[in-house]
Design a protein that fits this description.
It is built from 3 helices and 25 strands. By secondary structure, it is mainly β. Among the domains are: 2-40, no CATH class; 181-234, no CATH class; 245-313, no CATH class. The chain has a 4-stranded antiparallel β-sheet, with no helix packed on it. β1 and β2 form a beta hairpin. The protein starts with 21 loop residues before the first strand and ends with a helix.
Length: 314
């Protein structure tokens, strides 16, 4: 009988850990129903494996690890959850490799994209792969590098028989010459110049490189980015993946107010959720919860003004 293998004798509560809701009472393991003090028959714990990232340990997915303090499953460094949060996938993917998201490709090469039908990282239009990087192609035919001599920093790509720019340069608007990439705040004439150093989250705004809406300027150096380069990173959304409190607390400096702003979110069960005293609006921002009952119109107005101030701060 299986019950012959179960030993209910004990001296400490620890010796009863193999049973659900058990404590050691009178030298014997005693169990109670979950959420009450009603005594029930002791049964061995079921060893369950979570099938989602952010679920309780133990962790069954490859490239996942248990946070012992929180007893929750997270992806290891260099990996992020898949869209269904049931797998850990590579954070960045090289050219020609399998991809699931656009960001996987763009972290490895700004001018690549995850092709929808092939699910591979391929160079964008007007860019061609050369020595593992996407090179900007000019509208100039060639047979040798000498044919591209009149265009600074260019070489002849034999695969397409066209002149191409070196790494760190992109085509000008006429696609007849190479223009250097620009850093944050530097002069530019087109978005692609900003993408070289700041990534796809950047844009050329009033002839100066800036970050797009819902992005912030980060000084943190990213893998596969040029040394000492900054980037335009997406703001962590409500419900976004996180491993620690700081992942949901993106501090950025407002250029006009010169003050720190936070997202009023915290990391809870692997997702960015509103802090206590805040509620989510539109699944985007967390606003203070009213202490009293506001009329619907007043609540709507206060929410609108808060979101407006949030967007202005970006």
């Amino acid at each position: 009988m299986s019950t012959d293998l179960i030993d209910f004798t004990c001296r400490t509560d620890k010796e009863c850990e193999s049973y659900e809701n058990a404590k050691c009472l009178n030298l014997s393991c005693s169990c109670t129903a979950r959420g009450s003090n009603e005594p029930i028959e002791c049964k061995p714990k079921d060893e369950k494996l979570t099938n989602i990232i952010g679920g309780p340990c133990p962790c069954s997915q490859p490239h996942s690890v248990c946070n012992m303090a929180q007893q929750l499953c997270y992806c290891t460094d260099g990996h992020v959850p898949s869209k269904d949060k049931r797998r850990c996938i590579s954070e960045w993917v090289s050219l020609d490799m399998h991809c699931e998201t656009m960001r996987q490709c763009q972290l490895a090469d700004t001018f690549s994209a995850c092709q929808a039908t092939q699910h591979r990282c391929l160079c964008k239009e007007n860019f061609e792969q050369h020595l593992g990087k996407c090179r900007a192609v000019l509208d100039i035919s060639c047979n040798t590098d000498a044919d591209c001599k009149g265009n600074d920093y260019s070489l002849c790509l034999q695969s397409v028989k066209k002149c191409a720019c070196d790494v760190g340069y992109v085509q000008d608007r006429n696609m007849t010459a190479c223009a250097p990439g620009a850093v944050y705040g530097a002069s530019c004439s087109q978005n692609a110049q900003c993408h070289v150093h700041l990534g796809a989250g950047s844009m050329c705004l009033e002839n100066s490189c800036a970050c797009r809406a819902k992005h912030y300027h980060s000084e943190k150096q990213l893998p596969l980015r040029p040394t000492n380069s900054s980037s335009c990173e997406p703001l962590v959304p409500y419900g976004g993946y996180c491993r620690r409190y700081e992942d949901c607390q993106l501090h950025h400096m407002d250029q006009q107010l010169k003050a720190n702003h936070t997202t009023n979110m915290q990391c809870r069960l692997g997702e960015c959720a509103c802090q206590d005293g805040y509620v989510a609006v539109g699944n985007e921002v967390c606003v203070p919860r009213s202490a009293g009952a506001l009329a619907p119109k007043a609540l709507l107005l206060s929410t609108f003004l808060y979101i407006l101030s949030f967007i202005t701060a970006l």
